[in-house]
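Narrative summary of target 7.
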Amino acid sequence: MLTIIIYFILDYLYRKEIFEIIFPPLTLFFLLLSSLISNQTLLVPQFITVSPIAGKSMVYVHASFSLIGYLLFGVACLTSIFFLKLEQKIKNKTLLLQDIQVPSLGFLDRLNHRVITSGFLFLTVGLLMGITVNLIVKQGFTSINLRLIFPILTWGFYAFILFDRSIRGLSGRFTATWSIIGFIAAAFSFIYEMTILTHSTPKL
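Modeled conformation, tokenized:
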């Protein structure tokens, strides 16, 4: 559902046919992932039983914002792949006349940067909410584990991309390449998070 909403928002803002190419495989990826965990029992953190309304609200914000961040990183990844393919066609002078309606490299680069920035902001909120929940459950203390490390590493990776672009102004192939690598890390982090929530004991 979130994938469809993001598709319509981006399509409304940019009116480009590229989204018709990007979103089908992205939607398929998250549908397959959701089907793998749909039959699993999602563990409920301890604080939900203590404070149902506030607890559920915090969990929903954490999960929703993090998922939107991952989805936007997925959009950036596929946009980057499209960018690199188009750049290769232009360099090899194999861009056909029927391809003349494809977006420009400049547009794809700007789109990639904006989507990464938006995804980074959503992941930041989701990560902060997750850490807050963890601190509440642990009464001010939190343990360092892979479930916490992976999202932080993903966040740090995209922070590096945005920081490096703002300082050195690197764009194009650099951003596209690192965006693809970043989404692989983000997807691994997301899958690991879902695995922990559905298979481990109810603790954070």
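Confidence is low (pLDDT under 50) at residues 40-44.
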